[in-house]
Amino acid sequence: MTRRLLLGYLVVTLVVLLVLEIPLAFFYSQREQERFTAAAERDAVVLASYYEDVLDGGAPIDPTQAERYAARTQSRVVVTDSEGISVLDTDAAVGRNFSTRPEVAQALAGERASGIRQSKTLNTDLLYVAVPVASGGSVHGMLRLTVDAHEVTERIRGFWLSLVAMAAVVLGAVAVIGWAVARSVTRPLRELQASASRFADGDLSVAPVHPDAPAEIAALADTMGVMATRLDGLLSAQRAFVSDASHQLRSPLTALRLRLENLSAELGEGTQGAEVEAAIDETRRLADLVSDLLKLARADQPPPAERTDVAAIAADRIDTWSAVADGVDVTLRLDRPDGALWASAVPGSVEQILDNLLDNALQVSPAGQEVTVTLERAGDRVRLRVADRGLGLNDAQKARALERFWRGAQTTPGTGLGLPIAVGLTEASGGGLSLADRPGGGLLVELWLPCSA
């Protein structure tokens, strides 16, 4: 917006300058030419009066006055008789016929003629003035004065250049002042835009705009502030409810599961015992759901990211999950470079992400297969991949797999919150997570975290 305002200022200024300077330049050019022509005509009339009696009486012409004038003004003086034959020429021999020249013919007809023409021989502009030499109403000849118009042309050109220079200075001054004014005008909008960007990133604190902001922008900022406050309150209430409900439900669910397990031991393996075992399984699933909800609530409000050794954490989680993998006859393999891989991550997030991904991979991997965890550094990122040999997901399923509570099949164990928790923790750390097909079958979960020096 600053550039558009500045461009508007410059366009308006340029139009004003053109409207003012172009007519002024043409007026100055015309006035200088008229003044130069009038001076030449005045000199031509004075010289013509000097030769009036000579041409009338047919006496020999004395070229002294004309030659002095020509030498002083760097001009050419030509005097002809009534037939247009030159009788005096300060620049050539006499006897030439000038009657075919329009200005000569006009002067011999008793009228004055003047103008500027380009001389190809001298490569310059020449001003010519032709006046009749007459007395008693009779034209005895004419006098033509030719003057180099270079001086007046240069004066006009200099005036044009001065106008251009002045316009450039004015435009430069307008650009500087306009930039400052535009920045001042758009400062509240930039502050509001910065607040909106932070708002979109999850920071619901809307900074107050500049005190000099227009009333409309200030009102918009106040409205955004009210909206942010209400939204922050709603989100805080939601997180508090999920966290409190999860905490409050864990103890009753644990007590219920223990009572059901005691009841199952008393009933034995009969029909009623099987029903109690099913109830115990549902209780465990509900407890897992409550635990995942608590993790999800914490993921929505994570602490600041810290420097984390992803390689060391991955090795530790592989060791922890190896016993579970052995129980389902699945091999866990870790491919990693030597040394540490430092990334910026929310404290405890890498452990939770790997636990969720490994849990999902082991649940869907057939016996005798392998789950591979790969770590590598790619530019300014640390990349982590978890690949299994399960049935995989089609495109529609991959699009929904990151949604909360979605499960591939009702028979699939879990709460449907593992991947959403992993996504939330990854994004809170400044990274990203995506799903792809593993070559040869299965699912490939790839995530990246920003490197930390």
Automatic annotation (TrEMBL):
<dbReference type="Pfam" id="PF02518">
    <property type="entry name" value="HATPase_c"/>
</dbReference>
<keyword id="KW-0812">Transmembrane</keyword>
<protein>
    <recommendedName>
        <fullName>histidine kinase</fullName>
        <ecNumber>2.7.13.3</ecNumber>
    </recommendedName>
</protein>
<dbReference type="InterPro" id="IPR003660">
    <property type="entry name" value="HAMP_dom"/>
</dbReference>
<keyword id="KW-0597">Phosphoprotein</keyword>
<dbReference type="InterPro" id="IPR003661">
    <property type="entry name" value="HisK_dim/P_dom"/>
</dbReference>
<feature type="domain" description="HAMP">
    <location>
        <begin position="183"/>
        <end position="236"/>
    </location>
</feature>
<dbReference type="InterPro" id="IPR050428">
    <property type="entry name" value="TCS_sensor_his_kinase"/>
</dbReference>
<feature type="domain" description="Histidine kinase">
    <location>
        <begin position="244"/>
        <end position="453"/>
    </location>
</feature>
<keyword id="KW-1133">Transmembrane helix</keyword>
<keyword id="KW-0418">Kinase</keyword>
<dbReference type="Pfam" id="PF00512">
    <property type="entry name" value="HisKA"/>
</dbReference>
<dbReference type="InterPro" id="IPR005467">
    <property type="entry name" value="His_kinase_dom"/>
</dbReference>
<dbReference type="Pfam" id="PF00672">
    <property type="entry name" value="HAMP"/>
</dbReference>
<dbReference type="GO" id="GO:0000155">
    <property type="term" value="F:phosphorelay sensor kinase activity"/>
</dbReference>
<feature type="transmembrane region" description="Helical">
    <location>
        <begin position="6"/>
        <end position="28"/>
    </location>
</feature>
<keyword id="KW-0472">Membrane</keyword>
<keyword id="KW-1003">Cell membrane</keyword>
<dbReference type="InterPro" id="IPR029151">
    <property type="entry name" value="Sensor-like_sf"/>
</dbReference>
<keyword id="KW-0808">Transferase</keyword>
<keyword id="KW-0902">Two-component regulatory system</keyword>
<dbReference type="InterPro" id="IPR004358">
    <property type="entry name" value="Sig_transdc_His_kin-like_C"/>
</dbReference>
<dbReference type="InterPro" id="IPR003594">
    <property type="entry name" value="HATPase_dom"/>
</dbReference>
<feature type="transmembrane region" description="Helical">
    <location>
        <begin position="159"/>
        <end position="182"/>
    </location>
</feature>
<dbReference type="InterPro" id="IPR036890">
    <property type="entry name" value="HATPase_C_sf"/>
</dbReference>
<dbReference type="InterPro" id="IPR036097">
    <property type="entry name" value="HisK_dim/P_sf"/>
</dbReference>
<dbReference type="GO" id="GO:0005886">
    <property type="term" value="C:plasma membrane"/>
</dbReference>
